[in-house]
Amino acid sequence: DQQVKQNSPSLSVQEGRISILNCDYTNSMFDYFLWYKKYPAEGPTFLISISSIKDKNEDGRFTVFLNKSAKHLSLHIVPSQPGDSAVYFCAASDRNANAGKSTFGDGTTLTVKP
Amino acid sequence: DTAVSQTPKYLVTQMGNDKSIKCEQNLGHDTMYWYKQDSKKFLKIMFSYNNKELIINETVPNRFSPKSPDKAHLNLHINSLELGDSAVYFCASSRQGSVSNEQFFGPGTRLTVL
């Protein structure tokens, strides 16, 4: 039972364009969502998060949108840069249960072409 | 100065052996985790410790035993290694009470069982 899903294993975009990475979840008790970025041979690093009481959070070139009714979130990167090429993981947590455990999706590999 | 460190980075061993992976964090965090990333790139939580106490124990074979000598260290000992244990293991930490439960990951240990 995979509660967090990233249905696109890979995405390729041109430098300067927008990258949109998608994530769906099934557990309506999730109340916090995070995106992590992972380069090869490194651990994931935190990128941006959003609380379930919001529908948008922006940090520089990165914006996360949350649609609770659809149980869907997306990460927008604009403009995309070659250095953004990495694996992006979506994660969700229910802070009132499971000791704040985060459930991860299986990642989307983003390639930004110069 | 590395925030979350793991040793060794690579571990190649024979089936049936016992091995340990060490993890240390210098962030002053209260909570530490072990994740397994298998060949499908899926990040799955194995254990979580808070102030040296086990708080999350997913369905993991009891050949895997975490040990937390203090809140800055969470080591993973694996007995009777099997081929299916081959994976990348990530240690992570987070600050108790953090709103987003943002986790800081180590660089990973690639375990290969022959």
Please characterize this protein's 3D structure:
The complex is a heterodimer of chains A (114) and B (114). Chain A has a single domain (4-113), classed as Immunoglobulins (Immunoglobulin-like, Sandwich). Chain A is mainly beta. In chain A, strands 2, 4, 5, 9, 10 and 11 form a six-stranded mixed β-sheet that branches. Chain A has a five-stranded antiparallel β-sheet with strand order 1-3-8-7-6, with no helix packed on it. Chain A contains no helices and eleven strands. Chain B is mainly β and 114 residues long. Chain B has a single domain (4-113), classed as Immunoglobulin-like. Chain B is built from no helices and eleven strands. In chain B, the strands form two sheets. In chain B, strands 2, 4, 5, 6, 9, 10 and 11 form a seven-stranded mixed β-sheet that branches. Chain B has a four-stranded antiparallel β-sheet with strand order 1-3-8-7, with no helix packed on it. The A-B interface holds A 32, 34, 36, 41-46, 49, 51, 87, 89, 93, 95, 98-104, 106-107 and B 4, 31, 35, 40-45, 48, 50, 55-56, 90, 92, 94, 99-108.
Keywords:
heterodimer; A: 114 residues; mainly beta; Immunoglobulin-like; six-stranded mixed beta sheet; five-stranded antiparallel beta sheet; globular; B: 114 residues; seven-stranded mixed beta sheet; 11 strands
Short description, anyone?
The complex is a heterodimer of chains A (114) and B (114). In chain A, 0% of the residues lie in helices and 54% in strands. Chain A is an all-beta fold and 114 residues long.
Distance linking N and C termini of chain B: 34 Å
The CATH superfamily label of chain A reads Immunoglobulins
Order of helices and strands of chain B: EEEEEEEEEEE
CATH-defined superfamily of chain B: Immunoglobulins
Mean pLDDT of chain B: 91
Q: Do you know the CATH architecture of chain B? A: Sandwich
| Secondary structural class of chain B | mainly beta
CATH fold label of chain A: Immunoglobulin-like
